[in-house]
Amino acid sequence: MRRNLRVAAYAVCVRDGQLLLARSPGPDGTDEWVLPGGGMEHGEDPYDTVRREVTEETGYRIEVTGLLGVESRRHIRRRRLRRETDHHALRLVYEGKVVGGELRHEVGGSTDFAAWQDLAAVPALTRVPLVDVALRLWRERPADGRPTAPRYPGR
Is the bond preceding residue 150 a cis peptide, omega within 30 degrees? Predict the structure, then answer.
């Protein structure tokens, strides 16, 4: 079985009761809301990853104001006509504050739209589970940086 480790960094940016999100096509073609962020490049510091990814996906420059926590998830990916993959996603979740730039949409990347969403409206959005995990980390601020159960409500 093939093994794959993906390390990524994401930002929770909240201002005036709204959360900054980006939209990404899901595996079945349905659009899903995601936190701005993404995969770390080899040799890149995760702090730099989150700032780069937020700028790429939203147009904003952020100041990282804290590390909220780490989310680790492992699952087996089964694909037709290919070997199974034991995938391990390690996600660093930072808190960020917008300090510059202008809201814009990513062109030619993994997302196609960025927007501020009311925090109260987030539960009704079609979103990836990491959004809920990150919001729990942001609200609860656990000393150990681990999200509380349930890890993936509704899925």
Answer: yes
